[in-house]
Amino acid sequence: MATVLYITAHPLNPEESYSLTVGKQFIGAYREANPTDEVVHLDLYKENIPQIDADVLRGWGKLRAGSSLDQLSEAEKSKVARLEEILNQFMAADKYVFVSPMWNFTVPPVLKAYTDATSIPGKTFKYTEKGPVGLLPGKKALHIQASGSVYSEGPLASIEMGFSYMKTILQFYGIETEAIFVEGTAVSEQAPFIKEKAIAQAKEAAKRF
Fold this sequence. Notes:
FMN; 6 helices; globular; flavoprotein; 5-stranded parallel sheet; Rossmann fold; alpha/beta
């Protein structure tokens, strides 16, 4: 049995979101193909994801200096402990499905905060004399990304910083990563066709994921 983290980063519901619609179809097909696997849904807009702020940096610094968790301030303790929970859950999973829109050429802030929480030296990657090495090999991820224009190829590909960021950070951890793009939906007459094509692609991908 594998554990799949289904991580969504959109404040609306599937009826209002292309990315969530495709993600929902993917997960439905995945569950049908893998009935014994555990799928854990993390709606990042409903999760407590501390930003790496002064409390976190000071708390981590105190822990590295030998302090115990109980010796941290209440703010430091609560944020550091929550970040540890997020990290441990991420590391324990076998597969990851990220679902997000492209906002301002990249991922929503909550998804960036989530990757900040999981990018910890000695946990998801390590530094060596030959450079950084990912510590989560053998795991895989899928990123479902929706956008109004086409960014995966063509003249706008150079400014696509959503999936390119997710692929970079996940491969930094050693995680094999692929994508399904729901793109070009701003052309209203093509949007239904684009959505259905992405749904078909998602259902097919779910069988082999």
